[in-house]
Amino acid sequence: MDSNPKAEAAPLLERAYDVEEKVAISISEDEDRGGDEHGRSLPPFSWRKLWQFTGPGFLMSIAFLDPGNLEGDLQAGACAGYSLLWLLFWSTAMGLVIQLLSARLGVATGRHLAELCREEYPRWASFALWMMAELALIGADVQEVIGSAIAIKILSGGVIPLWGGVLITALDCFIFLFLENYGVRKLEAFFGVLIATMAVAFALMFGETKPSGKELLIGVVVPKLSSSTIRQAVGVVGCIIMPHNVFLHSALVQSRKIDNSKKSHVREAMNYYSIESTIALVVSLFINVCVTTVFAKGFYGTEVASTIGLENAGKFLQEKYGSTLFPILYIWGIGLLASGQSSTITGTYAGQFIMGGFLNLRLKKWVRSMITRSFAILPTIVVALLFDTEGSAMDTLNEWLNVLQSIQIPFALIPLLVLVSKEQVMGIFRIGPIMKVVTWIMVGFLIVINGYLLLDFFSAEAHGLLFTSLLFLVLALYVIFIIYLVSRGSTLCARLIH
């Protein structure tokens, strides 16, 4: 059976990359003949080939390093000390499994998740999934743009106000378009520089503050959770899985030119993407651990621990540690700027794929970039003008945005699991029964964790009979749609298992 019977689709369908945009992977004639009919035998490992496949995983890893994640890291460190490092480690591991499934889907089918959702579900369900994906992307992008604007305000010494930083950040769309014209590898190199900047900046912070290595190791190895840190724990888990990133990774892996009709090529690509994605998320875990431990060392158990956010974090660090080699305030600002800029550009990239895939749009990429960028920039400018970043209003807004993204998680993960389990879509590359059980348990755990966040948040916000009734109606529709998606997957699985 062909790995993708629908691969020979009409050329008018929207595709993540045109043929001329893809990076050619050099495969020798000997390698091409290797493997059995199922592609189980792989050629010897090649560092050169790993380098050719390197890029998509690092772009994907930026969602693990966006300003929302950094805020979750610093709050976990300040409020819970080193005790939630184990949860950060296992959340990253779960995130890796989800992203590898996304990459598997893209490589095996030659199409990305948004395209496949459009074909798999009825029009009404596909439209609903698209709206959910767009809302998740807007919520993430608002946080990322605000984070970048805060960094610009810090580095300018307060000269550039928040709304000015938002406008400057809006211009990153043109940086993205400029680099994209010079090829995928140039764009990936740019993101590599931004990730390296974050790694160096936060490693310098770690070196200057000198957190306890013993406490760090205990925090990673020994699970600890108390009632006083449950909110930070939920935040750590909730920040890791980003709905738009699941859509993004399935499209990014198609930037390499491989022959999807040859199973050995597909399996080899999956192998290299697995290695590359693992390395990328190890780097992201290192950065997140640095941020968490710095704030654990400096502020855990202090009176200001619960008041630290993205903007005042640098000020608190400066007051605590002063200037040794370089003002720590500016180290924080540089790292935050690299985080904000990289994540907003990848958000624009994800928006292109989501809009094009669900709606089958053949618009020019610059048009789609402007549309998706406008969706985020316009509400962010309103936020920057109306909210004081040093007040509680911005914290409340961030809570609402986190809730918005938590709501969307099932609508990315459930379709992903349904599709990677389906033989008609994946052919021989569908996941096996054991992996299916493990991933459904994992996704169920993530949905429960985010459900706790939603209940905790709305129980505090719900006031009045009218609001409570409306909230109950919305939640009922939400649960019904999730049940529909799960039951559809269960029906398909039952039909495929003899």
Automatic annotation (TrEMBL):
Compartment list: Membrane
Lineage top rank: taxon: Eukaryota
Membrane topology, record value: Multi-pass membrane protein
Gene Ontology CC, one term: membrane
Chain ranges passing through the membrane: 80-101, 121-140, 160-178, 190-207, 233-252, 273-296, 329-350, 370-387, 407-425, 437-458, 464-486
GO-annotated molecular function: cadmium ion transmembrane transporter activity; manganese ion transmembrane transporter activity
Pfam families to which the protein is assigned, alphabetical: Nramp
UniProt entry keywords in alphabetical sequence: Membrane, Transmembrane, Transmembrane helix
InterPro entries xrefs: NRAMP_fam (IPR001046)
GO biological process: iron ion transmembrane transport
Family in the record: Belongs to the NRAMP (TC 2.A.55) family.
PANTHER family reported in the protein's UniProt record: METAL TRANSPORTER NRAMP2 (PTHR11706:SF104), SOLUTE CARRIER PROTEIN FAMILY 11 MEMBER (PTHR11706)
Protein name (record): Metal transporter Nramp2
Organism: Canna indica
